[in-house]
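Q: Predict the assembly, please.
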Amino acid sequence: MNQAPAAAKDAHADAAVETVARQVLGNCPHHLFQWPPLANGEQWTSLDRQQAIHTNILKWATDYHVLPNTKYLSTFLRRYVRMIEEAGEELDEDLLTFHCDLMGQGAADTGDLPHDFTLKTYFLDSRVSDNYVTTMESANTISGGTTGLKTWPASLSMAEYLLTHPDLIRGKTVVELGSGVGVLGLVCARLSAARVALTDVNASVLSVLEKNVDRFRQRTTLPAAPIEIHSLDWFSVEDHEADAHLGDVLLCADTVYDPDLLPGLAHCLHTFLRAAARRNRPLAVYMATAIRRESTFHDLNDRLRKVGFAYRIILDDCPPMRFYPDEAVTQIAVLEIVPVSDGTGVGGE
Ligand SMILES: C[S@@+](CC[C@H](N)C(=O)[O-])C[C@H]1O[C@@H](n2cnc3c(N)ncnc32)[C@H](O)[C@@H]1O
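A: Predicted assembly structure:
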């Protein structure tokens, strides 16, 4: 956090508060929430810890306009207050006031969030610091008939992979397909990409993406790459669009979820790879995906092979570890799309 935690007694207590901050501000689902152990037998219900949670998480998030929505926060606080009461501890006055204000929609500032939307904050360093990305997202899985209004776990796994391999992005022009609300792209902007182009097809997704990018531009205090947003449909993308948007790195996360979309995605990847080949320009293509059905994977491989490419698994079974996905994640893989061994890699469709 920006200021030294007022009530924290030592580094261990600081780190524990940060773990709670990361969960609360990342909207970690309540059933997956974990209170980290404290040193010297101290409890999270003590007045000292209550003050730390109020000052370093709730007040900090209010001041920085990154509070999750009222529904998420009031459930968190209800559970916390119950814990305090069950331990027979006194309730901290500031915490109580915050809770009452929230219930009455008083001073707690949750901004102008549309119904069922929340703010999620992803801290990019191992410690909580100014290096974070906040996005407005739907609190529901499918909202307005699209899956694109929330961040999917594969995006978070890919973001974590890139955070540990920043050279893949530093100084590169990055294009993302099916960006959704934009977390991955914003992480790339923070990783010193030369330029980031975020694309999607859905009008409501593009509108939320625009808001998230605006917010990022206005509020970030750290250097970040220029970000563009474009409407791009995998099925109808043409050579001139691929030429116009072509970068050094093409990313897609959780775009292999519907077998009906695979032909479009394969066409789009092929169009970009062909554009790169025409210009004799290397294009690294990374894809992160939840492995929901093996058959969809085989289908992806078949479609890629038809156009001269295959996927290579870079990381298998890599659920997000730093960020908090909104579901208990099963299997996620990060793939690289590479030319098949005959080296042509740019076959016809
Ligand atoms: C499951 S969401 C993933 C969003 C984001 N990449 C993430 O992982 O959080 C799939 C995204 O692909 C987009 N999409 C679906 N069909 C598309 C198409 N034909 N062209 C471009 N984008 C498409 C959706 O609008 C949605 O944003």
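Residues 11-103 form one domain. The longest strand covers residues 332-339.
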